[in-house]
Specification:
paralog of FGE (formylglycine-generating enzyme), 3 domains, single chain, elongated, 3-stranded antiparallel beta sheet, 401 residues
């Protein structure tokens, strides 16, 4: 009698199995064919160059007959060894990420497709998730005495000086501030899992991505993420209402950064953000030019003064490359830490794709908000910080090209 064996399996969790025992059993010799007899048997004729046999072993057609190859460690597809059997699934990353095997026999993360937001339609029929590619270049960052000078009769902050050279590589920047409806998709998918360490890193600035020390800064659950969005005068509603196309507010720096990473993007640097708002080398005082804001160009204290204006409003205030609401509406988070004097006079004075990753007052913000003075606070060079939640602070995302 020839011995055969039964392999007993035990399931461990949702995605793994373990062999627990191997039990020999007897099988009648009359049902067995000796290896020698099998070797001598005539192989069936073939025409295609390669295939997989019924046991999942690659076969190659040689001289009109099949020749078996080496068994595949995972699966055989079309005569080749592949990573998995199409249609199968598993969990990776300690069970946190589901993967499915595609038609080519390769594992794919199913979360990637599930995460793509459905953003709706904003101004001029544009997708609220749309972004605009910005060609890299150099400009004068900060406030000077020419086209970007402080408006006559007003006093501007000293942290905007000195004006200095800055260079940025090409990148894309969201056309609009992130809306309530767009952020809702992130909230619905949120389970407390933080981004991977270094995710969202600027390719020219090592160490600018997500830091493991920030994991504790994120809410632990979906409920914990939603609850503080209800800050006074905030735009969030737990169910879709009239604010879906208004800019999200009352978010923290870490939540904004985690959202951008979730979308496969990152936060813009302060230099990138100001480069767009200033029109690059045109060095504009405001995104549209030198004229002070009006009810046609910006949502600020002296004009509309409202937190719930839809993004894409004020088309007369659009920037050089087509970005909306860079002035007023919501202050917008940037990746840089804000400090009042040291950065512009020190390491940031000659900026080449630079980011202030050092200590300072808090996370930097740009653009001014709906509660701020129109003449001074919504200028392209204006700077600020936001270390907590505010109803006039939101964000938009960027991506390196």
């Amino acid at each position: 009698m020839k011995k055969m064996y039964i392999l007993s399996l035990a399931f461990i969790g949702a995605c793994s199995v373990e062999a627990t025992s191997i039990t020999p059993i007897d099988e009648p010799e009359t049902e067995q064919v000796s290896l020698a007899a099998s070797d001598k048997a005539e192989s069936p004729s073939c025409s295609s160059p390669k295939t997989c046999d019924t046991d999942g072993i690659p076969q190659t057609c040689k001289n009109g007959h099949w020749s078996k190859g080496t068994p595949c460690p995972f699966a055989c597809l079309g005569g080749d060894c592949v990573a998995c059997k199409p249609g199968s699934s598993k969990h990776a990353n300690n069970g946190k990420k589901k993967q499915v095997c595609d038609a080519t026999g390769q594992w794919q993360d199913v979360e990637e497709a599930a995460k793509a937001p459905s953003c709706g339609t904003c101004a001029n029929g544009l997708d609220c998730c749309s972004s605009i590619q910005v060609p890299g270049g150099s400009f004068l960052m900060g406030r000077g005495n020419a086209t970007d000078s402080c408006p006559k009769g007003y006093k501007c902050d000293i942290d905007e000086a000195p004006e200095h050279n800055a260079t940025v590589n090409s990148f894309s920047l969201d056309t609009f501030e992130v809306t309530v409806g767009r952020y809702r998709k992130f909230v619905e998918a949120y389970d407390g899992t933080p981004p991977a360490t270094n995710a969202g890193e600027h390719p020219s600035v090592p160490g600018s991505g997500w830091q493991a020390a920030w994991n504790a800064k994120l809410p632990v659950s979906q409920t914990a993420l939603k609850t503080p969005l209800h800050c006074d005068l905030g735009t969030w509603t737990d169910t879709p209402e009239n604010n879906e196309n208004a800019a999200i507010s009352c978010v923290t720096f870490h939540e904004a950064f985690a959202f951008c990473i979730w979308e496969g993007q990152r936060l813009p640097t302060e230099a990138e953000w100001e480069y767009v708002a200033a029109g690059g080398a045109e060095n504009r005082r405001y995104p549209w030019g030198a004229e002070q804001p009006t009810a046609a160009t910006a949502n600020c204290k002296d004009t509309t003064y409202s937190p719930t204006v839809e993004v894409g409003s004020f088309p007369a205030g659009v920037g050089k490359w087509g970005h909306y609401n860079l002035a007023g509406g919501m202050w917008e988070f940037v990746r840089d830490t804000f400090d009042t004097l040291k950065w512009y006079k020190g390491a940031g004075n000659n900026c080449n794709n630079c980011i202030n990753l050092g200590t300072g007052i808090g996370p930097g913000v740009k653009g001014g908000g709906w509660t701020n003075s129109c003449a001074t606070k919504v200028r392209s060079a204006e700077r600020g910080d936001a270390s907590r939640r505010y109803p006039e602070v939101g964000f938009r995302c960027a991506k390196s090209l």
